[in-house]
Amino acid sequence: MTTTRINRCFERCRAEKRGALVVFASVGCPTLKESEELIDRLIDAGADMIELGVPFSDPMADGVTIQKSGQIALSAGTTLPEIIEIAKRIRQAHPETPLILFSYYNVLLNYGLERLGSDLKAAGVDGVLVIDLPLEEREEIMPMCEVNDISFIPLISPATSTERAKQIAENCNGFVYCITVRGVTGVRNTLPPELSAELEAAKTACQLPVAAGFGISTPEMARSVAKHADAVVVGSAVMKSLIEEGSNAAVTLVAKLAKGMR
After folding, report:
1. Which of 36, 40, 62, 198 is an active site residue?
2. Cα(205)–Cα(75) distance, rounded to whole angstroms?
3. Do residues 128 and 175 touch, judged by C-beta distance below 8 A?
4. Which domain holds residue 168?
5. Per residue in 201-255, pLDDT tens?
6. Which of 18, 51, 46 is nearest to 235 (CA)?
7. Phi and psi torsions of 28, nearest 5°
8. Is 137 considered catalytic here?
9. Which of 11, 95, 212, 241 has fewest C-beta within 10 Å?
10. Rounded to the nearest 5°, which phi and psi values hold at 210?
């Protein structure tokens, strides 16, 4: 199998005996220019991978913070072609940082899957994570991923059975996004006590690196989760700081998370 930026990222983190830090950013919040600058600074602060959040009008998996950041981005007129252009510039500035397009399916379908695949490949995007596309319907997008060497990043949740988790991970590469809670995104004070066992079971069932996301907001939570996952995803905590206090506070938070994980 061809070695990808995602593979190399996990290899580096394993060599450093730590989990990978994956940071979600709503592209276009508060503006396209500011979000691009924020992503650049997040990478410099220690983010190992970036999830490029595509704003959507009906974000059913997201809590208040990501919903608000998406609405800000939509109000600013953010479009998928602009996000892809930003991805291209980020790729030029950071040749080895994996970039994952994080989107609801309708936006991608409306863009056109064939066009999307070639544009993502040209921009240097490494993977797509489609929040609302179930296993039974993903054959619509898998050929586009395969032709353009783009990793399809599947999701599993605490409600996913072991057998279904195996089916979901089949024919995928990159990593599996493991949702940590039964609910939407958002900053939480605690995570479920059964999470560690669920993450270990997911790694066994999926035979791929596992990234844990939803609700992780402090270095302590990140360290705890990283004992059982290959990567930790932080999103709402960053966007909350960005919305309430500005980008400097968000970068400071991510730097603390990166330091805590290491």
Report:
1. 62
2. 41
3. no
4. 5-261
5. 888 899 999 999 877 777 778 888 888 899 999 888 888 888 887 777 777 776 7
6. 51
7. 100, -5
8. no
9. 95
10. -115, 125
Cα distance between residue 135 and residue 169, in whole Å: 9
Calculate ∠ Cα 184-190-192, nearest 5°.
75
The predicted-structure confidence for 142-188, as pLDDT tens digits, reads as follows: 999 999 999 999 999 888 999 999 999 999 999 999 987 655 454 44
As a whole number of angstroms, the distance between CA 217 and CA 187 comes to 6
- Please give the Cα distance from 105 to 42 (Å, whole number): 26
Query: For position 248, which CATH number holds?
Result: 3.20.20.70
- Which tokens is 96 given? 């080895």
Judge whether 36 counts as a catalytic residue: no
Tokens 């730097």 locate to 255
Whether the full predicted model's pTM is greater than 0.90, yes or no, is: yes
Tokens 């990593």 -> residue: 175
Task: Classify 99 as helix, strand or coil.
Answer: strand
Overall number of domains in the chain: 1
Catalytic residue among 36, 40, 51, 119: 51
